[in-house]
Amino acid sequence: MKKKKVNLRDLKPNSEEQHSHDDGHDHGDGSAFKTYIPAIISFVMLMVGIAVDYFDAIPQFEGWIRVVWYTLAYIPVGFPVIKEGWKSLIKGDVFTEFFLMSIATIGAFIIGEYPEGVAVMLFYAVGELFQNAAVNRAKGNIKALLDVRPKEANVFRDGDYVSVSPEAVNIGEKIQIRVGEKIPLDGILLSEKASLNTAALTGESKPDSIQKEAKVYAGSINLESVIEVEVTNKFEDSSIARILDLVQNATARKSKTELFIRQFARIYTPIVVFLAIGVTFIPYFFVDDYVFRDWLYRALIFLVISCPCALVISIPLGYFGGLGAASKNGILFKGASFLDAMTKINTLVMDKTGTVTKGVFKIKEVKAIGWNETEFMQYLMAMEEQSTHPIAKAILEYKAEGEDFEATEVSEIAGKGLKGIVNGKTVLVGNKALMTSNNIDVPTETESIVESIVLVAIDNQFAGYVVIADELKEDAKETITALHKVGINNIMMLSGDKDSITQQVAKELNIANAKGGLLPEDKLNEVEILKKNLENKIAFIGDGINDAPVLAASNVGIAMGGLGSDVAIETADVIIQTDQPSKVVRAIKISRSTRKIVWQNIILAFGVKVIVLILGAGGLATMWEAVFADVGVALLAILNAVRLQRMSWK
């Protein structure tokens, strides 16, 4: 199921609640300095006005001259805000920060507090500029991915290489990548070897050396020599296109915290407005020396404080930082909601093959009985050349000296193995059932071998066996240890491989609970049983098509993005680009750091606002304290959120 693609310009931290920040403070294509010119003009005029007021340097600076001066100082920063407030008002959205700031500052002018009116709007405008700069910086990791997208492909057509758009290249065509160029499309390496920088896809800067016929992915950079690649995916289905689509869509999926703050701000702001009206008029009935101007001033302070800037900007900014930090580390979250969900995980269920093991079979042991090992393997390899089984591929990687043997009259015996003729001898290759059905005695030592085993008989005599095993990934053991350290103690392994192998791998990894020989529906049933305990918050890590149902059923589905199937990747909520299980621990740490910073910002914003609201209602706070409670707290919260982009998680 293809997801809707999102234009990067639409990725505002909170498009509904932002009230067109970008429109109010257009950063367009101009320089950063031009953006700050209106604020600089207002600041200079404000300082001159305050200096003249304080030192009484110009006696004529009073009456209409003073009003005009401060009005001119107000216009560069105030007009864009008033304009946005008016636009929102026409659309029926009354309680926006633009409207509130407009009323508060115009009210300050009405009661003669001209310097404070200009200062409040100036600090608000400067705060907006810093907010936009912080948001743009948080988007940097996402925008940087666009630079990774290859612009052209050198495709072999009509006897020569021609440069075309990657979208115009077809599956099966041959492309050439020169040194330093990005691979434009996914494919198979035709050259003998290649050294690639896959940092854009995996977050790992270490060069990746691969051999002929290995898979290569779009977005990787060719480091050493000119290489040729056969295209296996259209550009829209390539790894880099998938990453771009996932990361861009991730910003559109709000977390529950974001959604709560948005709804809360819609209720909270009008309540404060009506309280401000109450602060203005209700004291008339209870205070003997009621002065309308004084109580209106307190109400205006209320309005300035009520602006929810710190909340509606810094919280989405925190999630932007988390998503960007994760993608920088080769971890793709499909939405901010999954950052939140990852923090609650207390149970981890994992597949075996391709998740904690490499998913590549290797010969672990060769035991020839009555035969020279090399000759024994030549007979076996001649037979396995007729098979497409993954185990056959592992056996054929064996390097046997001498000429190759050739098998004839090879037939497959369903569920048992192969039978054929090699060098005039009848050869049987398969499992114990094949040997038993041909009355061939098998040594008892083979019964204690838990790994996959290939038995061989030549001319009705048992000739030996080969043990085939899948290798553990380098970081598999440290992953389990690290999971315990971050508090994930309930770990379970579910595998379709035979139970004896699953139990052995689980024992090596120190996983107490493991089950093998499971069909996809069996895995799903096991997870459903775990879900019956509502305290269990389950993450499942898998990579195959058969893992898709379990990935969908879990609270958080995590797919291995390198080796993983497209179905698993499409179904999952989190994608590990490097196929390293240890990245799951890093994903948990990034999620927890993000949530911690978001809640720090919420507490900071609410705490300071409540204190200054109370002081303002009691006449103990001026407009300057109100500015700090609004713009100052917003900037502090933003600086706190930006910390995510500087953190490292090991």
Report a brief summary of the structure:
48% of the residues lie in helices and 17% in strands. It is an alpha+beta fold. Strand 1 (153-157) and strand 2 (160-164) form a beta hairpin.
Overview of the molecule:
The chain is of the alpha+beta class and 650 residues long. Among the domains are: 63 residues, Calcium-transporting ATPase, cytoplasmic transduction domain A, CATH 2.70.150; 142 residues, HAD superfamily/HAD-like (Rossmann fold), CATH 3.40.50.1000; 114 residues, Calcium-transporting ATPase, cytoplasmic domain N, CATH 3.40.1110. The chain contains 22 helices and 22 strands. The strands form 4 sheets. It has a 7-stranded mixed β-sheet with strand order 10-22-21-20-11-18-19, with helices on both faces. Strands 2-1-3-9-4-7 form a 6-stranded antiparallel β-sheet, with no helix packed on it. A 6-stranded antiparallel β-sheet has the order 12-17-16-15-14-13. Strand 1 and strand 2 form a beta hairpin. Helix 5 runs parallel beside helix 11, helix 11 runs antiparallel to helix 21 and helix 11 packs parallel to helix 22. The longest helix is centred in the C-terminal third of the chain and has 36 residues. The chain is elongated and about 120 Å long. It starts with 20 loop residues before the first helix and ends in an 8-residue tail after the last helix. 45% of the residues are buried. The N terminus is likely disordered. Its EC number is 7.2.2.12. Keywords: ATP-binding, Cell membrane, Hydrolase, Membrane, Metal-binding, Nucleotide-binding, Translocase, Transmembrane, Transmembrane helix. It catalyses: Zn(2+)(in) + ATP + H2O = Zn(2+)(out) + ADP + phosphate + H(+). It is found in: Cell membrane; Membrane. GO terms for molecular function: ATP binding; ATP hydrolysis activity; cadmium ion transmembrane transporter activity; metal ion binding; P-type zinc transporter activity.
